[in-house]
């Protein structure tokens, strides 16, 4: 109680892309991991605020986005969305906050002009923390563009106080590339809301599930897998799957996190009833597939995922112990792996599922994750 009263004088502002305010005000149950500790801080008595992406309403803002911002994103391979958050109201929120938390590097990179402006005007400079997912994964084609990208990345790293990497590989990459800033860098694996994602006692059906819209997913491979396993039912929860390229028995729920076509409770049921979740990925430093893998494992469904440089936890996840790894994205290779997994003995599968559940419970609890974020903020 004393700590809660103390926290009421501290304001934390979260920067999200979209959909968070709507879920918070909605009466439906939802998973809380995509809020990165927001509910924990709110329940701990902190003053809370949210800034989300908004399309520009002014003519200047619209043309700035169309003529300049979009081209810079394409040329520099940087997540620059200044026009979506830069306005007087958001600047006021920023300067009146004690802490800023950016849910991803897209939000962090886009807020740099406002943070710099606050410093120039001698306004309060709140401490800031940015979650990092794939910040260094895209490289411009030409040397001059690489130089501009490097300059903006350096500016971002100097401006924001702390960076929390959700991928072990990207964390070590940053330490190697920016050794002078190592005190700003933290590695903290993404955690899930285990009160939402849990196991069911119902029997599994002979079905495979694919979830996600991340650009690092190998959608074409996922489509080809379903075509080449016609006797197995597939369920796709994605906006990026072409219905004409999958098996006729497949189901598709076209939606995204910000624009869902099914609720988290419905998605949980899909996980629980499936025999396997597949996550084919393109090579990247970004920890792609992390939330889907953890959600599925927590629901008692094993995961087959491409082992990329961005895989988030090489220490605690081991092939055929608590997860299944694919080392390449060759179609015959994936078909063979899937058939081997589905033909495993019940005893083998129960062991892998049990090990996965224990790993997630021990290392990926959202409350513990949130407490660590609080500690990092106050260091």
Q: Can you give keywords for this protein?
A:
379 residues; alpha/beta; Rossmann fold; 2 domains; 12 strands
> Could you estimate the helical fraction of the residues in percent?
40-55%
**What would CATH call the class of the largest domain?**
Alpha Beta
Q: Tell me the overall shape.
A: globular
Instruction: State mean pLDDT (0 to 100 scale).
Output: 92
Using only CA atoms, what is the Rg?
21 Å
Instruction: Name the poorly predicted regions.
Output: none
Tally of structural domains? 2
The H/E string reads HEHHEHHHEHHEHEHEEHEEHEHEEHHH
What does this structure look like?
This protein is an alpha/beta fold and 379 residues long. The protein has two domains: 2-191 and 365-378, Rossmann fold, CATH 3.40.50; 207-363, Glycogen Phosphorylase B (Rossmann fold), CATH 3.40.50. The chain has 16 helices and twelve strands. The strands form two sheets. Strands 2-1-3-4-5-6 form a six-stranded parallel sheet. A six-stranded parallel sheet has the order 9-8-7-10-11-12, sandwiched between helices. Helix 9 links the parallel strand 4 (127-132) and strand 5 (162-165).
């Amino acid at each position: 109680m004393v700590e809660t009263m103390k926290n009421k004088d501290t304001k934390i502002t979260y920067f999200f892309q979209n959909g968070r305010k709507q879920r918070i005000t909605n009466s439906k149950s939802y998973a809380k991991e995509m809020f990165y500790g927001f509910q924990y801080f709110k329940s701990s008595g902190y003053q809370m605020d949210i800034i989300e992406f908004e399309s520009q309403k002014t003519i200047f803002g619209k043309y700035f986005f169309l003529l300049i911002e979009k081209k810079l994103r394409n040329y520099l391979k940087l997540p620059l969305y200044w026009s979506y958050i830069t306005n007087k109201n958001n600047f006021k929120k920023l300067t009146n906050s004690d802490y800023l938390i950016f849910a991803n590097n897209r939000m962090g990179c886009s807020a740099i002009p406002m943070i710099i402006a606050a410093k120039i005007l001698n306004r309060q400079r709140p401490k800031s923390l940015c979650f990092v997912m794939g910040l260094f994964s895209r490289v411009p084609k030409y040397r001059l563009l690489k130089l501009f990208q490097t300059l903006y990345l350096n500016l971002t790293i100097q401006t924001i106080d702390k960076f929390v990497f959700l991928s072990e590989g990207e964390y070590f990459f940053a330490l190697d590339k920016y050794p002078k800033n190592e005190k700003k860098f933290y590695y903290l694996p993404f955690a899930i809301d285990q009160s939402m994602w849990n196991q069911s006692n119902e029997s599994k059906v002979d079905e495979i599930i694919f979830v996600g819209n991340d650009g690092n997913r190998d959608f074409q491979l996922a489509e080809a897998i379903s075509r080449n396993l016609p006797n197995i039912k597939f369920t796709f929860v994605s906006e990026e799957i072409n219905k004409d390229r999958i098996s006729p028995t497949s189901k598709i729920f076209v939606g995204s996190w910000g624009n869902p076509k099914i609720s988290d409770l419905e998605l949980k049921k899909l996980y629980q009833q499936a025999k396997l979740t597949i996550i084919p990925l393109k090579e990247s430093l970004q920890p792609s597939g992390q939330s889907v893998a953890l959600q599925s494992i927590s629901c008692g469904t094993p995961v087959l995922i491409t082992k990329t440089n961005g895989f988030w936890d090489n220490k605690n996840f081991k092939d055929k112990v608590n997860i299944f790894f694919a080392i390449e994205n060759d179609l015959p290779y994936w078909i063979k792996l899937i058939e081997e997994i589905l033909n495993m003995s019940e005893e083998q599968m129960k062991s892998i599922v049990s090990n996965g559940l224990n790993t997630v419970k021990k290392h990926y609890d959202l409350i513990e994750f949130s407490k660590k974020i609080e500690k990092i903020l106050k260091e």
